[in-house]
């Protein structure tokens, strides 16, 4: 799930584009503060890294990661401080290994004046339990 999609145009800017491996497609949020992405995993996972590629000018200065097991309340895992660049960012996103069924990434403050976030690739590394 995502907080919003630009002009509700899921065909062109929907969440699926973060995971399709294409350099041409992306998830583009609508305007507003605190955009987010929630990932529900089919089985419990142990997360070790987060990889993300923003469009420069439409990134977040602060990302908060929250996670939980099924039936539990989400807890804060980490805060990340990505750069406002186009490149895939891996080294900034090492997270403490955490077992969870749901992961929420909140983009606390966009570098875009209107609060839009653009993500070309999102990857969660770890292992299935």
Automatic annotation (TrEMBL):
UniProt KW keywords: Nucleus
Gene (name only): Nr2c2ap
Name of the protein: Nuclear receptor 2C2-associated protein
InterPro entries per UniProt: FA58C (IPR000421), Galactose-bd-like_sf (IPR008979)
SUPFAM superfamilies found in the cross-reference section: Galactose-binding domain-like
Main location: nucleus
Entry similarity comment: Belongs to the NR2C2AP family.
Originating organism: Nyctibius bracteatus
Domain F5/8 type C: 1-53
